[in-house]
Specification:
Number of strands: 30
Number of helices: 34
Radius of gyration: 39 Å
Largest sheet: 8 strands, mixed
Helix content: 40-55%
Strand order of the largest sheet: 21-20-18-16-15-14-29-30
Strand content: 5-15%
């Protein structure tokens, strides 16, 4: 392994301003890259493989590597190779030994000793000299002919020897040129063997012990567990018409497990704890403290108080819990089983966290307290930027960061540590010079003291941010960046990165399967290999040094990481590079000020609050960049979320990069492509409508494709629309409204509080001006009703309730509320109440009948569906009947109401409850719609829409369209007998 592969490696020299100037004259040392990649691949393939296969892989690779190193190199032994290439002697030529001693060949008088080597080989064109007594007659010619034959034979031998010599010379040249390959292959095999051995040991932790078998039996156990990570909340998601309860999740190790029959076993098995909302807070014990703060009030037991107590637990805390084991839903990770904690017997803390974890907990708690009074985005974002605490990040903000590929700023990464170390040692290229900058020389620290302080800072970073695999990965990658800052020799950084990868994979083979690890290594490698060359190319074209480095770094990281991101999100961001460039200028000040607030909070909270307030400005800038970029209509494009899709994206990226190198020579073409890219991202509504045909001109009503849920829009003017229901997914409804060009919502009607109608509310509110929200009077389910009130209060949007008989008008729209009647269970006011809104215009003021004069007065609904808001809408001569999720009892009451006559012969019917089988036939016959629209999800488990409902509608001459087959739908035209109405599908 003594050879350095030829390559284009960068070398940095400092410029006058302290920036690094790239010199690409030196070769790039790639010797450690193959062993690191081999260890990475081996760990990824064997960490969850059967133990026997992993052991065999380790033994075979080890034996092959040792064998390669032990075999003596050809040509190094004494006399080796000489027999192949040296000119042969007489003995080697096969001449009879008798000739060498002067004896004669029988039947002749010619001695072979007289035939010299040169004569036999025919050199200089001489004939062999014949000595001795001549034999009379034909004896001499016969002897000459024999000598000629012998000479021909020797010529053949000489030709063979020359060819052998030539091949031997070539072999020697190849060995001299590629002699390093044997050692390199041996190193690859040995690293693969080490990775397989480490994977076998770590995989055994998941397979050994009684826990896996108990999980397969779904056994109920009492276990003593030690937390190995910070507890977190599960992602909210909709299951049917209800939102799944948000649980507390925590990774832990089972140290002992006791079965129902009293058998107890010691083990060390990784599990995932699931704590449901009704589980009480863990009981304190006298042996340890739960967290760095005061003990919580356990009077609330479960619910929010219990959830807060569980979220406050620190890693290394030991608990005794009872629960049921179950197999892990997804294989291929370090979880051997899932332990769902039960409330009886109550969980109990048996040992508090370790000292370093308590110190880290106090620091993190101090940072949260210092940021408590900051504006919303800064309050949520700053702890994430500093220590990776994302507990305050809302789903809406998280979605914005994902759409713009800024999610890496919310996780602890090597860039966090790099910023701190750069503050300590100064700009790159000057760290080892007398004119070095940064805080270290100003404090009078020597190079050795600076290195020790940097190491201590790195250790503190790991402790505060938790020694989780992601933090260790960040520390290793940050150390690579530290090497760049300290030496300015980027040529040695690729071996440093390979060494970091190798050590991390050997330390924790599960990292080899983590997407975060893949993205970190790819991004760091791109910054080291691609970015310097691209930066140099930009400088040659007149771009400033700092801007060139920033552009090259952002582009290189995006190009390399985009295929992996596409696998994770099935989407390619088109705004990632500009958003990262704009956010990068604020990351460093936010990180430095945030860490300053973290360090000062335990000793001087007022100072920490001032520092946090200063850090809030760059934090709000980053959040604004993410929100603005995500709000652009063309922020991203859908892409196949598979490894085949990743390969296709990689090929497309390579083609674009190669084409871009040629286009840089033609500024006009570059400008034209830049304009096209801007149009693709911004997607002006008139241009989009011309190209895609969506939304169709003059559309009146649109039904969004949001899966198993409802979200519809009534056109209310240029860029305005009345939205009825928000669907189950914020991203889907936001995308639908964005494609429709809706930027203003005069009124958002939520027909009832089931999750498949209200969970997408943040998507409707995202980047749009919503004037008011109107809901049903039946506030069930309570948690979803509270969710709506909370979202509205945060944005100061007034919330009202709809009552049968109410009439409204906005723009070309007029509508009447048909249902529900006044209910004895009204929606309670939001807390805190929103500020008073300006009074609506006369055209928008609702006309509400007196209580008791509406339909169904005093009627009590049996459930949320029966309390759905039903609307009769008129627009452009069309009459639309929107029934929400009304069940047959409410539909029957509607048929018997005084307003039943107005329902006859509508143009469009939004079929109730996603087209379920529970419909009132009399209402369907009365409405007799020309078109019926059904919102249902593909492959939904409820069988919506029901075949019987579809058949009943079609029997009356109704055209039935459904979103699970037809996608988003838009109604156009006018109503009446002579009206022409059409329905357009979105392609």
């Amino acid at each position: 392994m003594s050879r350095v592969l030829d390559g284009t490696g960068p070398r940095s020299e400092p410029e006058g301003d302290g920036t690094a100037r790239t010199d690409r004259s030196g070769p790039m040392d790639l010797r450690l890259v193959p062993p690191a990649l081999a260890a990475w691949a081996t760990a990824a393939l064997t960490v969850d493989a059967p133990g026997a296969w992993t052991a065999v892989t380790a033994v075979v690779c080890l034996a092959a590597g040792v064998l390669l190193l032990s075999v003596r190199r050809p040509g190094r032994a004494d006399g080796a190779g000489r027999a192949e290439t040296d000119p042969p002697t007489d003995d080697a030529a096969g001449a009879p030994r008798a000739a060498s001693t002067g004896s004669t060949v029988p039947g002749t008088s010619v001695t072979w000793s007289a035939v010299t080597w040169s004569a036999v080989m025919g050199m200089a064109g001489t004939r062999p000299a014949v000595t001795g007594t001549a034999v009379p007659g034909r004896a001499v010619p016969r002897q000459c002919r024999r000598a000629e034959r012998t000479r021909g034979t020797q010529r053949t031998h000489r030709t063979r020897w020359v060819e052998r010599a030539r091949w031997a010379e070539r072999v020697r040249w190849v060995r001299a040129r590629f002699g390093w390959a044997r050692a390199a292959v041996a190193a690859v095999l040995l690293c693969a063997a080490a990775a397989a051995a480490s994977a076998w040991l770590h995989g055994a932790d998941v397979r050994r012990g009684p826990v896996p078998e108990l999980a397969r039996r779904f056994a109920t156990v009492t276990a003593e567990v030690e937390l190995s990570g910070d507890p977190r909340l599960s992602r909210p998601h909709v299951r049917g018409d209800h939102a799944a309860p948000v649980a507390v999740l925590a990774r832990a190790e089972v140290r002992s497990v006791e079965e129902a029959d009293g058998r107890r076993a010691l083990t060390r098995t990784p599990v995932l704890l699931i704590v449901d909302p009704d589980v009480p807070a863990p009981e304190e014990s006298a042996v340890g403290s739960r967290s760095s703060g005061p003990p919580p009030d356990r009077a609330g037991q479960g619910g929010p108080a219990g959830r807060a107590a569980w979220l406050g637990l620190l890693p290394s805390t030991r608990l005794r819990v009872a629960g049921r084991l179950a197999p892990a839903l997804a294989g291929g990770d370090r979880t051997a089983a899932v332990l769902r904690v039960r409330g009886r017997p109550e969980p109990r803390i048996v040992a508090g966290p370790s000292g370093p974890q308590r110190l880290a907990g106090r620091l993190r708690t101090g940072l949260r307290e210092a940021t408590e009074e900051l504006p919303g985005d800064a309050r949520a974002l700053l702890p994430g930027l500093v220590v990776g605490d994302t507990s305050r990040i809302t789903p809406e903000l998280d979605h914005a960061f994902e759409e713009t590929d800024l999610a890496h700023t919310l996780a602890v990464s090597g860039s966090n540590l790099t910023v701190l170390l750069a503050l300590l040692i100064g700009p790159p290229g000057l760290a080892q010079r007398a004119e070095r900058r940064g805080l270290a020389p100003r404090l009078g620290l020597s190079l050795r003291a600076t290195a020790l302080l940097a190491g201590a800072l790195t250790l503190g970073f790991v402790v505060v941010c938790r020694p989780d695999p992601s933090v260790l990965r960040a520390a290793a990658c940050g150390a690579v960046a530290l090497l760049a800052l300290a030496t300015g020799r980027r040529r040695s950084l690729v071996p440093a990165l390979a060494t970091a990868v190798l050590l991390l994979v050997l330390y924790d083979p599960w990292l080899a399967r983590g997407y975060g690890f893949v993205l970190s290594v790819l991004a760091t490698g791109a910054l080291l290999v691609l970015a310097p060359g691209w930066s140099e190319a930009l400088r040659r074209r007149g771009v400033g040094p700092r801007l060139a480095e920033a552009l090259a770094a952002a582009a290189a990281a995006q190009v390399v990481c985009a295929p992996v991101v596409a696998v994770l999100s099935a989407r390619v961001s088109l705004v990632a590079v500009p958003c990262n460039l704009l956010a990068e200028v604020a990351v460093a000040p936010a990180t430095v000020l945030g860490f300053a607030a973290l360090a000062t909070a335990p000793v001087a909270m007022p100072v920490a609050e001032v520092l946090a307030w200063c850090a809030s400005w760059p934090a709000r800038w980053i959040a604004g960049v993410a929100r603005t970029g995500a709000a652009l209509p063309g922020a991203g494009v859908d892409w196949p979320g598979s490894w085949q899709g990743a390969l296709a994206l990689a090929l497309v990226t390579v083609a674009v990069v190669l084409a871009g190198r040629r286009l840089l020579r033609h500024p006009a073409w570059c400008g034209l492509l830049g304009v096209l890219l801007v149009l693709l991202i911004t997607r002006p509504a008139p241009l989009t409508r011309v190209i895609t045909g969506w939304p169709p001109p003059g559309w009146r009503f649109a039904m969004c494709d949001v899966g198993q849920g409802d979200a519809t829009v009534l056109a209310a003017g240029d860029g305005a629309g009345v939205v009825v229901d928000a669907g189950p997914d914020p991203a889907l409804v936001d995308d639908c409204l964005r494609r429709l060009g809706i930027t203003r919502v005069p009124l958002l009607v939520l027909t009832h509080f089931h999750a498949d109608h209200v969970a997408g509310l943040p998507g409707v509110l995202r980047g749009r001006a919503v004037a008011a929200i109107e809901t049903t009077t039946f506030a069930e389910p309570a948690e979803q009703a509270e969710f709506v009130r909370r979202e509205a209060a945060e944005r100061h949007i007034p919330v009202t309730t709809a009552v049968a008989g109410e009439e409204r008008r906005t723009g070309p729209l007029t509508w009447r509320v048909l249902w529900p009647p006044p209910s004895p269970r009204p929606l309670p006011p939001a807390q805190p109440p929103p500020p008073p809104s300006p009074p609506p215009s006369p055209s928008q003021s609702p006309r509400v009948p007196p209580i008791g004069q509406g339909v169904g007065a005093g009627w009590e609904p049996e459930g949320p569906n029966d309390a759905s808001v039903a609307l009769l809408v008129r627009t452009g001569g069309l009459r639309l009947l929107l029934l929400g999720d009304l069940e047959p009892p409410a539909q029957q009451a509607l048929v018997r109401s005084p307003m039943a006559a107005e329902l006859a012969g509508v143009d469009v019917l939004k079929v109730a409850h996603h087209g379920s089988a529970y419909q009132e036939p009399e209402l369907l016959r009365l409405a007799a719609p020309r078109v019926a629209l059904v919102s249902a999800g593909v492959g939904n488990p409820y069988g919506h829409p029901a075949p019987a409902t579809v058949a009943a509608l079609r029997a009356g001459g109704t055209v039935v369209l459904r979103t699970d087959r037809d996608g988003a739908l838009a109604v156009t035209g006018t109503g009446g007998r002579n009206g022409r109405m059409g329905v357009v599908r979105e392609d």
